[in-house]
Here is the input.
Amino acid sequence: MPKTLHSSSRRDFLKKSAIFSSIAFLPSHIALGKTSNGLVPPSGKVRLAAIGIGNRGGADLMNMFNSGHCEVVALCDVDLEGAHTKESQSSHPKAKKFTDFRVMFDKMADQIDAVLIGTPDHSHFCMAMLAMSLGKHVYVEKPLAHTFGQCDRLMKLAEKSGVVTQMGNQGHSGGNYFQFKSWTEAGIIKNVTRISAFMNRPRRWHGWGASVKEFPSQPLPPGMDWDTWADSAPEHPFSDKLHPQEWRSWFDYGSGAFGDWGPHILDTSHRFLNLGLPTKIEAVKRDGANSLVFPQASTIRFKFPARDAMPPCDVTWHDGVGNPPEVEAELGKIDTKKPGKIIYGEDLTFAGGSHADILQVVPREKFMEIRRDLPRVTGKNSDHYTNFLLACKGEEEARSPFSVSGPLTQVFSLGIQAQRFGGTLEFDRETNKITNNDAAQTLLDPAPRKGWEEFYKL
Here is the structure.
């Protein structure tokens, strides 16, 4: 099996690497390449390295570059021979190319200001930890990481390093973000006691996932660095049921529909209602449950306690075809075939979609009655990619930093354990532990694959 680094030499590489032998948290003016007086270099552009340049990562890279605030200096992908990475490579012919992110940092850390990570969920953590330890600003696709414990470490290192961080839930810089913030501050959205969130479109694992008993195996494509692809997660044979896009189906690598769409649907509710972490997570429904692959359909209910003056709140997640939430007739017609949410407040009920979609007061008759009293959100704001790059330059604050996106992702991690094990999980918010299921608690922070422990110590 061809590899950039043999398994036996991986630990030696980390120990001998100039990076790991001289880890230091660099001041932001150095990390961004600024002079001692704090001025940005003459180009005024952030020097960006991209890790994971196909599919979603490729789209992120295009959006970053099109903002006009960065120059792409490095491209890194374990499958540079793959058709899905060719467009990014041809669009940035001057960027240096790598298949191993560790080698990239070892060769050119001093030429990089910020890093874009658009790889599968299971590999976000090590890349982000290494980048932050070197003083590099980091944009990580959602969900932030694959496990509860990884999120905790990322948040701590982000705070310690002082770099700019952003998770790629792009709607967190759109209309829903500014509307939700404004309406909660104005008391329009208040005393929310329950939320229904849903994503009922077909997923990649629907149809075959329920009967899977083992990981399939196929010949490794030429040039593919499979050892680095597996990263700190358990290693299974290569197959097209994992790469380039099917990895999301499997518990060992992906986060299912919840981790994929939850960041776009529940982000503003979690942030502006100050939900934090739940005390109970109940698997109400698990159709086609499988120990390796996500269920064909699931309903997961979270119980969040009272926060300050806000009452307890139940959040119920629905995924799977034909598994929408019940919608009260008095709310009128709400399209549950599209990803979205219904938010039940003290005086008003709101229906919304995903990403930047703004909320609507329902039923429409109620909206028409109060529409003149609703705060209006106006003004032009930077998009999510531009916001990150301007934050790197010290001109804005990142809107979805790890301190915000980390706890949100930890909620998804808890929900995934309920999808995996079923039943009801009791969670202690003081100790951050599942108290009634040892197996689920272990998977909140599993040990890394041998040879990848160093990233957990940064």
About this structure: The first strand starts at residue 46 and ends at 51. The chain has a mean pLDDT of 92.
